[in-house]
Amino acid sequence: MSNPASPPAVDVLDERPGLTFPPGFLWGAATAAYQIEGAAAVDGRTPSIWDTFSHTEGRVVAGHTGDVACDHYHRLGDDVALMAELGLKSYRFSVSWPRVQPGGTGAANPQGLDFYRRLVDELLANGIEPWLTLYHWDLPQPLEDAGGWPARDTAARFADYTTLLADALGDRVRYWTTLNEPWCSAFLGYGSGVHAPGRTNGADAVRAGHHLMLGHGLSVQALRAARPTAEVGVTVNLYPVDPASDTPADRDAARRIDGLANRFFLDPLLRGSYPEDLVADLRTVTDFGHVRDGDLATISTPLDLVGVNYYSRHVVAAPTEGVATDSAPSCWPGSEDVRFVTRGVPVTDMGWEIDAPGLAETLRRVHDYTDLPLYVTENGSAFVDSVVDGQVDDVDRLAYFDAHLRAAHEAINDGVPLRGYFAWSLMDNFEWAWGYTKRFGMIHVDYDSQVRTPKSSAKWYASVIRRNGLAAQ
Ligand code: FCB
To answer: What does the DSSP assignment read for 117-157?
Structure first.
């Protein structure tokens, strides 16, 4: 025991304590089909909106595409072996819809299903819980040609695809996520157009958001019907939204962006209604005539869990008087002129402000909506990595994970039923409109040779998993 009279030998205030997570905490890593699989035209796969988009000049940095990506389709065994070395308890992956149901309608493609069966079996053989996301943005192109997510029928197609997957893999996959980040699909895909399919119409974006959620609800019902014991959830990307100052105008700007970014999805999914202020904010964009009786009941079909993707915080301010609204297509329909403010805090290579306390805040907020178990289904950072003597010492990424896990632990201490955490990402991959220029992986990928090199963050994460927590520092 230390002598209370003697001064501390070091500045204890700067030390970070060790932290232990609850028993059974599900430590994982996440990827998505189009970002890693490659094999774009192999074994019967047909184009998705991301194939079309990435092959359209000017859409993706440097003309990068997911044609080859990390060639995971052909390297499944080696990649699962790397996961096992990390000691992952779970692996969150997504299924490429046009690989298993080319064109998005009709019969399954047996070769496509076989790939996912092999993946799941390999995971199970290594004691890794498969966590399957049904839709991580790769809508079959013919469904986009028929109207895409702004068209109501796409929701029904998604339910059919769900049944096909539940029948094929439901005997061995316990955890199912319907959608990944519907905000991005709707508002980046159909609003600003920076994501596939690259359309730019605010009303279409709002319709897309609704039909994505309708598809989610129908998908949950399809899963329940086919596999009553499945654990089913949805993954939303959430941000705390702060006003840049305490003025009523800035506070109103924050309310508007919070409505579009967060409550547009949380309220229908978890409360069965759209927020009134959001509907009012959008009145110049849409009259919500696309919402039919019964939709919100379907959308709020009870879930088993909620997945939260967290990366950063938004700080916003009211439009500057006298300055005309930027006429570029916006992912904030009806609130295009709200200004996004930077605070001068450290940012990642995406330019996203690093804000670990925001993760705890976000988890507490979702818990205010629901008592369901929560999972962080994505959290991570892009940094410029350099390979030196075969090593990648990604101290910034490691520090990002460490800080966010401390915030996650704080949320657990506050009573949030957080049951697991998935690092984004297992390995470097195709970062959508940024192509291969942004690296989020714990495992470095050399895209010429396809050599994988675990970075320092991967080794550190393996130790976190082993001790079920963080060492004192
Ligand atoms: C999320 C996506 C994921 C990845 C990370 C960085 O929005 O779900 O695919 O691109 O951002």
So the answer is: HHHHHHHHHTT-EEEEEEESS--BHHHHHTT-TTSTHHHHH
| Ligand 1 centroid from CA 310, angstroms | 10
CA of residue 9 to ligand 1 center, whole Å? 44
| pTM, rounded to two decimals | 0.96
Q: Which domains are seen in the chain, by residue range?
A: 19-470 (3.20.20.80)
Residue of 350, 431, 434 with the most ligand 1 atoms within 8 Å of its CB, for mutation? 431
> Separation of 36 CA from ligand 1 center, angstroms?
12
The atom of ligand 1 lying closest to the CA of 237 is 7
Cis amide prior to 7 (ω within 30 degrees):
no
Catalytic residue chosen out of the listed positions 122, 181, 336, 361: 181
Ligand 1 centroid to Cα of residue 2, in Å, is 47
The answer to whether 112 and 74 are in contact (CB under 8 A) is: no
Question: Mutate which of 378, 397, 434 to test ligand 1's pocket (most atoms within 8 Å of Cβ)?
Answer: 378
Q: Which of 137, 106, 132 is nearest to 44 (CA)?
A: 106
Cα torsion through 431, 131, 161, 156, rounded to 10: -80
CA distances (Å), 190 to each of 197, 272, 289, 457, in order? 7, 24, 18, 35
Is 181 one of the annotated active-site residues of the chain? Answer: yes
Rounded CA gap, 291 and 436, in Å? 38
Binding site residues, as ranges? 35, 136, 180, 311, 424, 431-432
- Tell which one of 309, 422, 434 to mutate to probe ligand 1, the residue whose CB is within 8 A of the most ligand atoms: 309
Q: Pocket around ligand 1: residues whose beta carbon is below 6 Å from it?
A: 32, 35, 180-181, 184, 237, 309, 378, 424, 431-432, 440
Q: For each of the chain's 473 residues, which pLDDT tens digit applies?
A: 333 344 444 444 457 889 999 999 999 999 999 999 999 999 999 999 999 999 999 999 999 999 999 999 999 999 999 999 999 999 999 999 999 999 999 999 999 999 999 999 999 999 999 999 999 999 999 999 999 999 999 999 999 999 999 999 999 999 999 999 999 999 999 999 999 999 999 999 999 999 999 999 999 999 999 999 999 999 999 999 999 999 999 999 999 999 999 999 999 999 999 999 999 999 999 999 999 999 999 999 999 999 999 999 999 999 988 777 778 899 999 999 999 999 999 999 999 999 999 999 999 999 999 999 999 999 999 999 999 999 999 999 999 999 999 999 999 999 999 999 999 999 999 999 999 999 999 999 999 999 999 999 999 999 999 999 999 98
